[in-house]
Design goal:
This protein is an alpha+beta fold and 315 residues long. The protein is built from five helices and 13 strands. It has a single domain (35-306), classed as paralog of FGE (formylglycine-generating enzyme) (Alpha-Beta Complex). Strand 6 and strand 7 form a beta hairpin.
Length: 315
């Protein structure tokens, strides 16, 4: 198996101060959420690429209707949350975050590499406002907020009156009404030549991203064609956190051992701009990934869902 797509903090040097209390009254400028119909939802796949990740088997699950944001939470939206509440993210309290090396500006001082995936660097001063650190540019307002942890996302959700989706809700929404398909647009595989329907890697990973899809790094949260439900970037761009912990359904010895390394990790879905068929073929609806609740990276974000009767939704 390829090394994990999302490196995790090692648990050392945890911040000692707690985040600011959430004193805001909630957001008033949220995007209109989209109603996702309930019913029998599909979860998983009959043809797993990484069986040890628990991608299979294909299962069916009853879901109630719910509402989902059309995009991941943007930098601008997260900024309103911080301005209203004074919240301080875990990356800010740690004093660092994990940045993909290809995003660092030319001449950046040496940084600490992650052992198994050395293209990930622990960069002092990297956080949601300055996603490549103090020597880089400010985060773009309409892009997904990154360098936020599961704990940060949950705090935002509490303020916004929503929650993170379950894995079943996320997959059901990502399929866009198409049923048993690998991608939100259907069956056709993205490539490095003439079909780039989402923001992933093109070229030899991790040396060169050809950016044939128009982006090296994150794309605006509302980019590319939405799926059948009107949801943008359900695969590619940034991994999306869910409310679930990472668990495997297999009782095979190898799977049990694999899960032991990720006990207590949080589950994320959808892949990111760093995924490529040759390395991390996880820009598929059934693909799964995990990281610790306090980890933050250049390619991890989130979107919210809301109970169907609790939020205005698009018809």
């Amino acid at each position: 198996m390829k090394p994990c797509c999302t490196p995790a903090r090692d648990g050392k040097d945890a911040p000692t101060s707690a985040p600011a209390p959430l004193v805001g009254k909630g957001e008033s400028e949220a995007p209109t959420a989209i109603r996702i119909p309930g019913g029998e939802a599909l979860l998983g796949t009959k043809s797993p690429v990484f069986p040890q990740d628990g991608e299979g088997p294909l299962r069916r699950k009853k879901l109630r209707a719910f509402n989902m944001d059309p995009t991941t939470v943007t930098v601008a939206r997260f900024a309103r949350f911080v301005d209203e509440t004074g919240y301080v993210t875990e990356a800010e309290r740690f004093g660092n975050s994990l940045v993909f090396q290809g995003l660092l500006p030319e001449g950046h001082p040496p940084t600490q590499a992650v052992a198994e995936v050395p293209w990930w660097r622990l960069v002092p001063g990297a956080h949601w406002r300055r996603p490549v650190g103090p020597l880089g540019e400010d985060a773009e307002a309409d892009h997904p907020v990154t360098h936020v942890s599961f704990n940060d996302a949950r705090a935002f959700a509490d303020w916004a009156g929503g929650r993170l989706p379950s894995e079943a809700e996320w997959e059901h929404a990502a399929r866009g009404g198409l049923g048993d398909v690998p991608f939100p647009w259907g069956d056709q595989q993205p490539n490095d030549t003439d079909f780039q329907p989402c923001n992933i890697w093109q070229g030899p990973f991790p040396r060169e991203d050809l950016a044939l899809d128009g982006y090296a790094g994150t794309a605006p949260a509302r980019s590319f064609e939405p799926n059948g439900y009107g949801l943008y970037n359900m695969v590619g761009n940034v991994w999306e956190m869910t409310s679930d912990t990472f668990t495997l359904r297999s009782l095979k010895k190898a799977a049990t051992a694999h899960q032991a390394d990720r006990k207590g990790h949080r589950l994320s879905k959808g892949g990111s701009f760093l995924c490529h068929r040759s390395y991390c073929f996880r820009y598929r609806i059934a693909a799964r990934n995990s990281t610790t609740a306090d980890s933050s990276t250049s390619h991890l974000g989130f979107r919210l869902v809301y109970d169907a009767d609790s939020r205005k939704h698009a018809s």
